[in-house]
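Re: Re: ligand-bound prediction request (bumping)

Still looking for help on this. To restate: I need the protein modeled with MTE bound, output as structure tokens. Inputs repeated here so nobody has to scroll up.
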Amino acid sequence: MSEPQPEIQEPVGAEPSAAPEPAATEPESAAAPEAVAAGPQPAAEAEPASKATEAAPPPPVVPPAVVETDAQIRARSAGMTRRSLVVGVIGAAAGYAGYRWIDQSEKDGRQELPLRKAFHVDADVARGVFRERGLAPTYSVDKAVDLRFNGPYGVRDDIDVSSWRLQMAGVADAEKHPQYQKDITAWNYVMTPRVDPNAPKTVDSKGPAEAPKEAIWTRSKDGFGAPMRGQEEAGESDSTLDDGTPGISLTMADLMKLPRHELVTEFKCIEGWSEIVHWSGVRLVDLLELYPPAKVDGREPRYVYMETPYGDYYCGYDLSACRHPQSLLVTEMSGRPLTQLHGAPLRLHMPIKYGYKQIKRIGLIAYTDKKPDDYWTKLGYDWYAGL
Ligand SMILES: Nc1nc2c(c(=O)[nH]1)N[C@H]1C(S)=C(S)[C@@H](COP(=O)(O)O)O[C@H]1N2
Ligand SMILES: [Mo]
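Reply:
Sorry for the wait, this slipped through. Here it is.
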């Protein structure tokens, strides 16, 4: 990684540095020293040896990606050419116009930095005005590497991707959509216990270290045989939907109707490592525009909550962060379908946030006006996780 660290790394206010150092404060290290996958820190065995055997999500039924990356937009507005990246069209001209001012304000290397310093007394203002509207730096695709594996929560077993749905709650006029469901919590995701002696050790923390013939982890059932939720250290999410919550239930084909985008950005884990990654998928903002939030007390809800199927891992976000033009719902990394361990069939990349907000295997996106629960916040980390 020869690229210089981007300027936006500089924290505004105290919050990023206020996030506890994983090694020092990780409760799991004290409570369960044998557990390898303690926190958002790098796993000992970084690369899954099982890539080839993992089930891939259904091939995207989409026209070939005709997209323009933010890098390209920016390069063009700066009068440069970037031939290494895909050329194409952007989904919405309106969106493009809306972001142009960002690109222009950025082309000389984030001119707003001095302003950010002036605002440091008010972290909320700074966050809203600068951090979440500024673009993270982008790179040419030849700088990208295959992202290491780092977090097992919610991806310990293999999901049958044909059973995957993206549930959405809090959507305006949900019942008017053909994908409306009276109870989106009743959906049954089909999980297969992973049987893979080569899987990274981090997925072994709830099973025997060497178990070639047996499942390395099995989801518990409750007394009625239903899969139990929130089975990891942080426990069940406070933001879990009530049974009987209506919403919409999207298939991958529904998602693939959105314009494809590619992005080459730096992924940063709070532990201190970072890697430049080539992501492909659809913009979260495009999904949110297609299925906008229902008003709460006459206005937009402030937050978005996401969780894995059965809620083992979960994250909360400001709606504004989700509308950031680089917040991407990822289906492919390095030009290949996501592997199970990297969050197949759908994960989030949000380059304005640390890795622990970049949830893998998203099963639910819910609008809410109540600050959502968050896996690592429960364990002492900063809720915003901003860069
Ligand atoms: N479902 C899920 N998403 C997750 C995690 C996890 O454990 N489970 N870990 C987070 C953290 S701390 C990091 S650094 C990245 C790691 O993603 P990777 O394994 O694809 O590198 O995923 C984030 N999203
Ligand atoms: Mo992380």
